[in-house]
Amino acid sequence: TISAPENQTITLLYRHDFYQKPEEVVLTIFAKGIPADTVAIDFGEQILSVRINVPGETEYQFQPRLFGKIIPDKCRYEVLSTKVEIRLVKAEAINWTTLEYTKEVRAQQKLNALAGVSSQRPAYPSSKPKGTNWDKLEAQVKEEEKGEKLDGDAALNKMFGDIYKNADENMRRAMNKSFVESNGTVLSTNWKDVGAKKVQGSPPDGMEMKKWEY
């Protein structure tokens, strides 16, 4: 076994690969001729748990933290003669650049928080006797997110995104108007201040402001 980047332990027994559509990710585990009753798969909000326990062989375990969130109730899998095919239904129609979550993913988040489809983790494990400890896994995910630090533009984008997400309609109008009219140099949340006038640009010292060209 080896330790994966997100502190998951993976037993390298079967090779896997994936491709995606706008609404789903299809993960293939190339396990040939395994009985269906030896496969146990659970779906969490952003965690996948795969276990293949063939008698007489080393148990295969794959529990990645996924690139994006999924809708557990809509996910499914099928055990075929040459492979296990897993279909992960995306909670948001975004492109997954990788299968597993990496810290670089946070730098790619949009300024405006998308109102993604809310999904819930299973209230209890599947009917398989060995259930996944979702409380432990998801607590670990949230703890890692709390500990992650962003720098530069990524930190600013997250801050602005949080402000915009929690703002009322007037605050959002003020942010959009001030940002556009100032050519990206002023960001105000005070509609009374910016609503009745054109916002003038205010570039940092030593820099020259240029108008946007469309």
Automatic annotation (TrEMBL):
InterPro entries per UniProt: CS_dom, HSP20-like_chaperone, SGS_dom, Sgt1-like
Keyword tags: Repeat, TPR repeat
Protein family: Belongs to the SGT1 family.
Location of the region described as Disordered in the Swiss-Prot/TrEMBL record: 195-214
All residue ranges annotated as the CS domain in the record: 11-100
Species whose genome carries this gene: Escallonia rubra
Gene3D superfamilies reported in the protein's UniProt record: 2.60.40.790
Cited PANTHER family: PROTEIN SGT1 HOMOLOG (PTHR45862)
One BP term from GO: response to stress
Name the record gives this protein: Protein SGT1 homolog
Stretches assigned to the SGS domain: 123-214
Repeat among keywords: yes
Domain of life: Eukaryota
Gene Ontology molecular function: any one: protein-folding chaperone binding
Keyword Membrane: no
